[in-house]
Amino acid sequence: RDNAFCEQSSYEYNGRVEQCRASSCNVALPRGSVTGSRQVAHTAKDLMSAVAQQPVTVGVHGAMGDRNAFQFYKGGILNTDCGAKVDHGVTVVGYGTDEKG
Fold first, then answer.
1. For residues 62 and 70, what is the distance between their CA atoms, to the nearest angstrom?
2. Residue 91 and residue 37: Cα distance in Å, rounded?
3. Domains along the chain?
4. Type and span of the H or E element at 49
5. Residue ranges of the Peptidase C1A papain C-terminal domain (predicted)?
């Protein structure tokens, strides 16, 4: 609502608490350009279908399973038990598999 969506390259996650840098990032989507939303069913297949069309925002529990898994995430596929409380929003822009499937 208050800021644009930043390009990941200019506002990468670093696992530290810092001041908001939204005013100095490279803008990917200008403020106000998201004008609608719709709900996606809670299945991997439906999420993959939606992400194939556009980025999708999802709510996650930051303290899921292994408490440090989300806080210190650096890359790859996060594979841990789901938490019970939604307290973070993330944007899904792609999907895939790794050597474990």
1. 6
2. 13
3. 1-34 (no CATH), 37-101 (3.90.70.10)
4. helix 44-51
5. 4-99
What per-residue string of b and e applies to 76-96 under the rule 16 or more CB within 10 Å gives b? eeeeeeebeeeeeeeeeeeee
Q: Which two tokens mark 85?
A: 């409380």
- How many residues are there in the chain? 101
| pLDDT tens digits for range 22-72 | 788 899 888 888 887 888 888 889 999 999 988 888 888 776 656 667 777
As a whole number of angstroms, the distance between CA 101 and CA 89 comes to 25
What's the token pair of residue 27?
């803008």
